[in-house]
């Protein structure tokens, strides 16, 4: 028997996930889409040949066993509360929003529900989680992004940083993963995931560079622990629809969904 899956959001992440579910992921069936603009969603679904209803966010908990949150960070709370209150599983890319809503994790425990924060556009979380079973001394992440992909970030607006004027690699943020996620909610979900896998958001350090010499979203993580020391770098192609999102992000969601019904699970 297939589990019912509904998606919140139909943008650079949600639409590829919808296509994958429509094409077939064993054990799952796409049942609905919830978005802010139903007219745009219906057009996109028609163009993709996907025939499922477009519903309000409030309906997700009653029509799905698994709610896949691919919506903007500002919608995270409403999507999460709807799913978890109904005791559903929540698969989400919004690590930054999760850090800002610690009560959401508590709600999952109260309702015997489950939150799955996908890896997203990062690498090495298996190794970080394994190292966390021992003692991790430090975790550092350095993100380099084309300046245009950072446009509109609250941190830039608060510090009056004109991203359009940056013409050489410039470090625009250095601090904790928590503060970075707060200042760049659309850009560093990866830092939130890394922090939750390891030392936590206040002890994980983050640097963000606006770099006009790169065309990819580049993340390097450096981990020092009592079991291993490792450095890893990933260079992600940005989404054509949204440069703040990497192309691999929706693929990470799809991989997580495939794992839910897999008889063989590879990785920690």
Low-confidence stretches: none
What is the C-alpha radius of gyration, as a whole number of Å? 18 Å
Oligomeric form: single chain
CATH class of the largest domain: Alpha Beta
Q: Tell how many strands the DSSP assignment holds.
A: 11
Return the CATH architecture of the largest domain. 3-Layer(aba) Sandwich
CATH topology of the largest domain: Rossmann fold
For the biggest β-sheet, the strand order reads 3-2-1-4-5-6
> In percent, how much strand structure appears in the residues?
25-35%
Which range best describes the helical content: under 10%, 10-25%, 25-40%, 40-55%, 55-70% or over 70%?
25-40%
> What gross morphology would you assign?
globular
CATH homologous superfamily grouping of the largest domain: NAD(P)-binding Rossmann-like Domain
Given helix and strand content, the structural type is alpha/beta
Major β-sheet annotation: 6 strands, parallel
CA-to-CA gap between the ends? 26 Å
Number of helices: 11
